Amino acid sequence: MKTSFTKIVRNEINEKKRMDKNRAFVRDCFISGGVISNPRRTYHLEFTLDESNADRLMKILTIFELRPKKIARGGHFVVYLKEADEIADVLKIIRANKSLLALEEMRVEKAIANNINRKVNFETANLTKTVDAAQSQIDAIKFIAKTTGLSVLSAPLEKVARLRLENENLSMAEIGELLEPPISKSGVNHRLRKLCKIAENMKASEMK
Q: Is 10 left (phi over 0), alpha (psi -120 to 50) or beta?
């Protein structure tokens, strides 16, 4: 029992020594030929080495559960990683703690900026869609007014049509609040869709 436990302890110590040796090799490779791109722009870490050291580095990084790639460039070999998480892991391996902290801060800043941009783009797209839809509704109502007059419409449709023409910048919800009695946004949308359909049918009839 004692011999077995002693063996376990020795194996653990040997494994630690082996991993420390691997860490030291990765660190030496980075010092001699490592480059990290500016994380604010892109994620890229590479080591420029001779073939023998490149192969050894590939093997060691795989032991650390990373997925490096290797290419030949200008008589040397380049081992590289392009995932932010894996680059962070390399910094942990070589114990570049300050650089790791800086990388994580940049990743957070980049994530926040990307999230803000996505929200702005989404809201801009929705606004554009809303403006385009409102203009289509106004164009349809104007066509009906010019062709037959709005008085030929049913009372509910005529009320919505006139309110839309008189208040081009209002939302459908705001138009609904101006009606007597007030109706929901979906109710206004339903009536405006009917008006657009009427205009489409009138245009189709003119073309026959």
A: alpha
